[in-house]
Write a structure and sequence with these properties.
Distance between the termini: 38 Å
Order of helices and strands: EEEEEEEEE
Shape: elongated
Number of helices: 0
Structural class: mainly beta
Length: 161
């Protein structure tokens, strides 16, 4: 019987602290009584097909998981697609942007704690990306609160060698 030892991959200098390099990035989406996003570029209620940019995931983070905490649900039947898009608008060949990376059809109407709803592997973002939430099924017409936590490992941006 053989002993097989895995070769060590490139070790990341960013994780050289005793507490590691895992980050939890928190994004909060709150809407008012008419269903509009608080502190946003629009005062209109969220409509079907609207995409909310929740914030930025920095380049060099390896995205591994997410949690969606719906503490106050949106209007009944609303679902959402949670993913990412590069904020420069240009896709990447090595890591294509993905509007449903974290999940498609997530129930945003009922209080819940939802984990990443896909089996997609981790991705190392080569550039800054926006965390996006697309509203599906119905327009929002009520106050709500949803927190999205993205778990990512700071590895740094890969450079050509």
């Amino acid at each position: 019987m053989a002993t097989v030892t895995k070769k060590q991959a490139h070790r990341n200098a960013l994780g050289s602290t005793p507490w590691g390099n895992l980050s939890a990035l928190r994004f909060v989406l709150e809407t008012n009584a008419i269903g509009a996003v608080l502190d946003a570029s629009s005062n209109a209620p969220l409509a079907v097909g609207d995409v909310v940019v929740l914030g930025q995931i920095p380049a060099g983070f390896r995205v591994v998981d997410s949690a969606v905490i719906v503490s106050e649900g949106m209007t009944a039947t609303i679902t959402g697609d949670l993913g990412f898009a590069y904020n420069d608008g240009v896709d990447s060949v090595t890591v294509p942007q993905d509007a449903v990376y974290f999940g498609a059809g997530l129930n945003l109407a009922t209080a819940a704690h939802l984990r990443k709803a896909t089996s997609k592997g981790s991705v190392l973002l080569p550039k800054d990306a926006d965390l996006t939430l697309k509203v599906n099924v119905a327009a929002n017409a009520k106050a709500s609160k949803i927190e999205v936590i993205v778990y990512a490992i700071a590895e740094g941006v890969a450079t050509a060698q």
